[in-house]
Design goal:
By secondary structure, the chain is of the alpha/beta class. It has helices at residues 2-5, 24-37, 47-56, 80-89, 109-119, 132-141, 164-176, 190-199, 208-211, 213-224; strands at residues 9-13, 41-45, 61-64, 93-97, 124-128, 145-147, 181-184, 203-206. It is globular.
């Protein structure tokens, strides 16, 4: 999958239960719109959405399952349960939270990586990280790539944005790891996407700026208040 998405745009097609577009059918149509617009891959949440998307488009899919657990702040592909669901979906890559935060049930990220590699050896693994140190650890654990997805979304990075200081965080991750780095998180404009790729990101994932019309509307409304 990394070869298929190299140098291109991956579009995240997700909607949580409380959001207006929550529907596997709608996500499949968003994925089709993304493909027609030139996307080279899709990032999607839940087995059901991925199955629907795969019936609509032939683009490779980065699969996740978002699920809340009471004993952990980790909610992106947090346990073996989510791994099993994603392996059944046929997605080409599985992304999981690879931050330093404790996982539900105290399972370790290393255990999940090993479990996935044994159960689905043909599926690549993406580490959603929030710090440079987490990226380095993810590389050592055997992930195929790292994504900046969670930078700015963990308690210890919450004041930061991916685009701060001309993508300084992305630059540092690129310096510290050898595996491909995917830019994700607050890539809000086409110029930002272009800059990420210029700096050396293998690819970039854009979601909210393309597939979340409620949030896009809010941005416009805020500008005229």
């Amino acid at each position: 999958m990394l070869n298929q998405i190299a140098g291109g745009l991956v579009v995240s097609c997700q909607a949580l239960p409380h959001e207006p577009l929550h529907s596997s059918y709608i996500m499949s149509r968003l994925a089709l719109a993304a493909k027609l617009g030139g996307a080279v891959g899709i990032r999607a949440n839940t087995k059901e959405d991925i199955l629907a998307i795969k019936q609509e488009v032939d683009l490779p899919v980065i699969g996740i399952v978002k699920r809340d657990y009471e004993d952990s702040g980790v909610f992106i592909t947090a346990t073996k349960r989510e791994i099993d669901e994603l392996l059944e979906s046929g997605c080409e890559m599985i992304a999981m939270d690879a931050t330093i935060r404790p996982r539900p049930g105290r399972v370790t990220t290393a255990e999940l990586v090993s479990y996935c590699q044994k159960r689905g050896p043909g599926v690549q693994l993406m580490a959603d990280i929030s710090t440079v140190e987490e990226a380095v650890v993810a590389q050592a654990l055997g992930f195929d790539c790292v994504s900046t997805t969670l930078h700015g979304y963990t308690p210890y990075t919450s004041m930061s944005k991916l685009y701060d200081d001309d993508f300084a965080f992305l630059k540092e991750v690129l310096r510290k790891v050898r595996i491909p780095v995917i830019a994700e998180g607050n890539v809000q404009e086409p110029e930002m996407l272009k800059r990420c790729l210029e700096l050396g990101a293998a690819s970039a994932v854009v979601g909210g700026a393309i597939t979340r019309p409620m949030e896009i509307t809010k941005r416009f409304v805020e500008a005229i208040k």
